Each structure stands twice: as structure tokens, then as C-alpha cells.
Amino acid sequence: xxxxxxxxxxxxxxxxxxxxxxxxxxDAGYSGVDISKTPTGTRxxxxxxxxxxxxxxxxxxxxxxxxxxxxxxxLKNPQLSVVEIDHPELSSSVMCxxxxxxxxxxxxxxxxxxxxxxxxMENGAMGVQITCSGKLRGDRSSFEKHTVGILPRAGHxxxxxxxxxxxxxxxxxxxxxxxxxxxxxxxxxxxxxxxxMATIKQKNVAPKVEEKEEAEEEKEIVITxxxxxxxxxxxLEQKKPRTETEQILFExxxxxxxxxxxxxxxxxx
Length: 269
Description:
By secondary structure, the chain is an alpha+beta fold. It folds into two domains: about 1-85, GMP Synthetase, Chain A, domain 3 (2-Layer Sandwich), CATH 3.30.300; about 90-190 and about 240-269, Ribosomal protein S3, C-terminal domain (Ribosomal protein S3 C-terminal domain, 2-Layer Sandwich). The chain is built from ten helices and seven strands. Strand 6 (about 160-170) and strand 7 (about 175-185) form a beta hairpin. Helix 4 (about 90-105) packs antiparallel against helix 5. The longest helix is centred in the N-terminal third of the chain and has 23 residues, at about 1-25. The N and C termini lie far apart (about 65 Å).
């Protein structure tokens, strides 16, 4: 029984640590934590979208987190490392936190849900399912489920391909639960490789494209001052927000142009 108790205690501590980090480094785009024990101590890998916020100026953020993990969570000699997420839109934890932030700011849950679905699918997801439950519109509790694309529901492929996370958000009406399940194409097993018409056409056109590329390489490209200024201006426009709070504000402005199903129905009347 002692071994079972140790496993339960470790899992409970990991759950508490996950909840703490979700609130502590929210602006860094927290996605998850990996803990592994070594002979010299405990390795803790934090997966975030913006590592600079976690590290802090001259490593002050890392030192503060190390002291908290050793003192409050009882980790022996914690060694922290920060891992940057390449595609935050394909991380269920990051998208759950963003959707919860939009609902906390007062955005209609359907508009926020449709925007999240659009962002995930545009970044190359195979499928996504978003479930919102709680007091969404009135005193009665209800739930809505929105699914786009291909999403395995059961079996080994569902465990390997699908990334899932759950978060709860407090609103004036009550507590709302959000669950996002994302199926990623890069985790598909090779024998079940997806083939669409775009890839087939691309193979047929490949020889012609190679000939065009060889012809373009022979041409000399001259970059003038006007072209250089245009490139710099474009890079400044595409500059990413520094924190998750700025990302939420940026998305809130873009979300206003999104048409919901209710608005489309009103236009058709």
C-alpha cells in the first residue's frame, strides 16, 4: 500500500503544481509541465509560448520559481528548464486558457468558440472539438459542443493523436467548463496517412515547379531601399504580442469582424 500511496501523493502534487503554474505564468502561455526524478535532483520542464517572461530579467523569474517549487511543493533540488512551443494554436492547454480569457472579458461564448475553432483549423489541425458547459445564457445549466474536421473518439489512435485539456472559468452567471480536444496531423500513424487532392496534384505538378525554380534562380534579384523599407514595415506589422494578455486584446479586436450563426440568421430573415 505504501507504493500506491506514494503514486497517489505524487500525482496529487503534480495536479496542484499544474494549477499553480497555470495562474502564475499565465502571460507566458503555459501549456504543461514535465517532471522527472534524477539522482542529483528533480528536472522540471515548463512548456510555454513565451520563454522570456518565465526566465525574467537576468534569470530572476527562474530563481523565484525554483525557490517556490522547493519550499511549497517539496521538490528536491529542482532544476528548471523552459521549452518553447512551436505551434501554440495546436496546444489544447494554450487555447483553453485563451478561450477562458475571452469569456472572462465578457465576449459571447459562441463568438469566442467560433474564433478558437477557426484559429486551430487554420494552423493545420486535423480536427477539433470544443465543449462549453455551465450557465451559458441563463439560470439553467446547458452545454454546447462544436466539432470541425476529423477527430478520433476511441482507441489507440485517439490516445496518440488527440490532445485534450479542461479549464474552468468564473463568470457573473456562474462557473463555465471548457474542454478542447485537438487532433494533430503530425502525430498520425504512417499506415493511416491522410491523402487529399491537393497533395496528389502537387506531385503531378512537381516537375514543372522544379523547372520554374531553376529558371528563377538564374535571375539576379536586386533589393532597393524602397523594397527594404517595405520588408521592415511588414515585419513590424506581423510582430507577435509580447504577452498572452496582449494576444487576447489583439484577438478581441479581430474577433469583432467574425459573423456568428445568429447574425447570419438575422440577415436572412
